[in-house]
Automatic annotation (TrEMBL):
Pfam family, one: Response_reg
Name this polypeptide is given: Response regulator
Domain of life: Bacteria
Keywords: Phosphoprotein
SUPFAM superfamilies: CheY-like (SSF52172)
C-alpha cells in the first residue's frame, strides 16, 4: 500500500472501462479515485477547488461527449492550477498522430492504450513527475 499525497481522477465515458480502471487503481492507492464521464465534469470539479489543494493524477480518455480529452487538456493548461495536474492518456486510439499530439501538452506524462492493466499503473506511479505523490510505505 502507498500513502497518497494526490488525488486520482478517471475521466472516461465508458462506465465498464472506468470501473475496471477504478478497481485496478483501488488496489494501489488508499483513496478511491473519482470518476467523471467527460472533461467538462472533471474541469468543473477541479475549478471548484480540488486543483488548488492536492496534486492531481488524471487518467484521461480522448474520445468523449460534451468535452473530449483534447479540449480538457487545452482548458486545463489555462488554469492557475495547471502545474498540479499530471495527465496520463488512456485511450483506444493507436494512432501515432494522437500520441505525438498528446506529447505537446505539458501536463501529459504518459500514453497508454485501453484497458489499463495493473502493470501499467505501477509504471505510471513510478514516473518521475508523480512518484513522490505515491510513496511506498
Amino acid at each position: 500500500m502507498r500513502s497518497n499525497k494526490a488525488e486520482v481522477l478517471i475521466v472516461e465515458d465508458d462506465l465498464i472501462i472506468s470501473r475496471l480502471h477504478k478497481h485496478v487503481i483501488g488496489k494501489l492507492v488508499p483513496e478511491d479515485p473519482k470518476i467523471f464521464l467527460n472533461g467538462r465534469e472533471a474541469l468543473d470539479y477541479l475549478d471548484e477547488g480540488s486543483g488548488k489543494e492536492k496534486e492531481i493524477l488524471v487518467l484521461l480518455d480522448l474520445n468523449m461527449p460534451v468535452m473530449n480529452g483534447w479540449d480538457f487538456l487545452k482548458n486545463c493548461g489555462l488554469r492557475p492550477y495547471s502545474n498540479k495536474i499530471h495527465v496520463v492518456i488512456i485511450t483506444s486510439s493507436m494512432f501515432n498522430e494522437d500520441s505525438r499530439k498528446a506529447a505537446q501538452f505539458e501536463q501529459v506524462i504518459g500514453y497508454y492504450v485501453k484497458p489499463l492493466k495493473q502493470e501499467h499503473l505501477l509504471e505510471i506511479m513510478e514516473l518521475e513527475q508523480v512518484a513522490h505523490l505515491f510513496e511506498k510505505r
